[in-house]
């Protein structure tokens, strides 16, 4: 699970972007531009969601523009160890965040990938899902199977582009949350 010799970067992000109070509305889980300050952690985190049990932020080594990570707030190593309300909350946010990524990037085809353990290509041993937009033109990589599991040629996320993209995702996610209030569930 957690390697005690090195701190978990996802736990650091979760700690830097606290959850809203339990009595808050869903919209309170979407940080404002002022509270989403990326420099709260190093490397910078471009946070889109900070709910009670889930945080979502841009991948710092994205496979494509808009590559979003959706992680449990508390440290859990593999998805089989996620229990109760945490699992329900992850399941609640994934469709909203997927629609957000599609709307912001203009790419309606995407993968949701979740790896469990080092042999399954899990690099950070903390449960997280990748929402990876799949545009019509993809960069060429030597092994297409590696691309599916998060390896391959990846460039660092530019801080200015990350801030702009995360800001737009927060705006669209707020709209998604507001539309839930108007929908008949």
UniProtKB/TrEMBL annotation:
Organism field: Mytilinidion resinicola
Record motif Histidine triad motif, residues: 126-130
Location of the active site: 128
Superkingdom, taxonomy of origin: Eukaryota
Domain HIT residues, every copy: 34-146
PANTHER family documented for this protein: HIT DOMAIN-CONTAINING PROTEIN, HIT FAMILY PROTEIN 1
Recorded GO MF terms: catalytic activity
Name of the protein this chain belongs to: HIT-like protein
GO biological process: nucleotide metabolic process
């Amino acid at each position: 699970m957690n390697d005690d010799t090195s701190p978990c970067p996802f736990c650091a992000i979760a700690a830097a972007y606290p959850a809203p109070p339990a009595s808050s509305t869903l919209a309170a889980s979407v940080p404002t531009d002022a509270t989403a300050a990326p420099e709260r952690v190093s490397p910078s985190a471009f946070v889109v969601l900070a709910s009670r049990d889930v945080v979502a932020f841009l991948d710092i080594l994205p496979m494509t523009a808009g590559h979003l990570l959706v992680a449990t707030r508390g440290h859990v190593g593999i998805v089989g160890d996620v229990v109760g309300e945490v699992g329900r909350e992850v399941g609640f946010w994934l469709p909203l965040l997927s629609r957000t990524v599609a709307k912001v990037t203009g790419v309606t085809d995407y993968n949701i990938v979740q790896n469990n353990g080092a042999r399954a290509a899990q690099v950070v041993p903390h449960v997280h899902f990748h929402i990876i937009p799949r545009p019509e033109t993809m960069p060429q990589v030597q092994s297409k199977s590696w691309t599916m599991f998060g390896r391959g040629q990846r460039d660092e996320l530019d801080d200015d582009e990350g801030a702009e993209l995360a800001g737009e995702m927060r705006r669209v996610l707020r709209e998604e949350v507001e539309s839930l209030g108007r929908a008949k569930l």
